[in-house]
Amino acid sequence: MRFDIFYEEFITKAGYKMLLEGLKNTAIIAVFALLIGLVIGSVIVLVKISPFNNWLFKILKVIGDIYVALFRGTPIVVQLLLTHYVLFPLMDINLEPVVEGVITFGMNSGAYISEIMRGGILSIDKGQMEAGRSVGLSYMQTMMKIVLPQAIKNILPTLGNEFIALIKETSVVSFITVIDIYKAFQSIANSTYEYIVPYLMLALVYLVLVIIITMLIKLLEKRLRASDKR
Amino acid sequence: MIEIKGIYKNFGKLQVLKGVSCNIEKGEKVVIVGPSGSGKSTMLRCMNLLEIPTYGEVWLEGKILTPVDPYLHKDIITKSKTFKQLAEKERSENSGLTDEEISSKIIAEIKKNDLLKKYEGREFAKAVKELYKSNYIKTNLARRKMGMVFQHFNLFNNLTILDNLTLAPVKLKIKTKEQAEEKAMQLLKRIGLEDKAKEYPSKLSGGQKQRVAIVRALAMEPDVMLFDEPTSALDPEMVGEVLSLMKELAEEGMTMVVVTHEMGFAREVASRVLFMDGGIIKEENNPKEFFTAPKDERLKEFLSKIL
User: Fold this and answer.
1) Does residue A65 lie in a domain region?
2) CATH number, domain at A84?
3) Residue of A nearest to B50 (CA)
4) How confident is the model at residue A230 (pLDDT cuts 50, 70, 90)?
5) Using one digit for the tens of pLDDT, what is the confidence trace for B56-90?
6) Number of domains chain A contains
7) Least Cα separation, residue A206 to chain B (angstroms)
8) Are A207 and A11 in contact (CB under 8 A)?
9) Number of inter-chain CB pairs under 8 A, A vs B
10) What domain range is A145 assigned to?
């Protein structure tokens, strides 16, 4: 274990700049992927649990099922490789690798979030929907005003976990040439042939990141719970 | 005011309602009693379409809420292909019968054997569509006129008591926020809970919740109130406060349909009592006759057990 080699590479030769770049990319991908995932997840879940049974919704429900099956059925690395090397080149789309990462992770987490939200909505007593309908509100109005707000409060801890999982999973974006935290430490290790310290540091950075986020989520939960003083 | 005609309701293979018809006039207080599983709650829930009847029609103030059920309309059946074919056959075989006799015989046969199919020709489809188009009311509009009170209260847990009362009137643009809040505070004052306006439902007792649920329905100014076992989930000491609020409503002339096990309430308040068993209405009468001189055997047994 040679700290001096790591120190020289990291501070003197400005290896930390790469780490900052990596942190930035990880943050961008995780945050935007979560936002995209929330939107996609909401759409899928609303289609899936909707009581409408006309042909349009039947088709949409099948599409939703296929979507979820595809994104849950393949590893995220494979999805990244397919987007970067197959899908986008074929469609002649030329994007920054980070943006490709955001899109892929977003679509992937949409599949998971839709299942999380489905559980959350089903956990709400169906009397809430019936009460809303009985005073003349439409399905959508009751969903938006009564059921979803309660469901989201219930799934917040699970959504937090999803965000933490996203942060950690971003460690594979280097497969499509994005510089992330992993890449930053790997390049130090590769250029010095000293692996122990960089990889210990890598683990430490992820750990600290996740601990900070966990604390933030707990804070947010506490504030939401405070609003209804149960 | 509410008329249900020939309602059947199947849940999968289980048939809960087996042909129920009932007409509720303005100002009536109809109490529905019966053993559990007899279909009384299902019938009530069919009235505001929380359950969609498998067959049959629901009418509210002369407007139809369900699709047209052709079996209930002679003039529509006679326009079907099936009827015409059968009539042709019947006429050639039994020339002795009059047209009138033939048609009533065939209609009986069609109803008995469920012979009408989806496609029965253009004339038939047109008759069904015309009847529906000239009489229908959208479910959401109809529900505004029918207040519903549930066994488990079903207050909106994420809203304050005040918001529980104002959400629908404001969201449906029936009232402005100020109007709705004024009305809501009046209603809360009436049940003595105006100081709870800013609290969430989890802070209330069962009896308080149910009284709030009743005034939430009243906030929509409905023409009729439906009560689905409103006191069954309450502690015994809280039953009284809910029943007395319901009695007040009855005295004010509200049209009410109440599914309940409270026989005292039925005796005191009802203008008519229905006894349901096995998915049909076995007996209906004014409360005096109903309790003192029941005719149906099953009803006698039921009353002897609970009184």
Assistant:
1) yes
2) 1.10.3720.10
3) A130
4) very low
5) 999 999 999 999 888 888 888 888 888 888 888 87
6) 1
7) 36
8) no
9) 70
10) 20-180
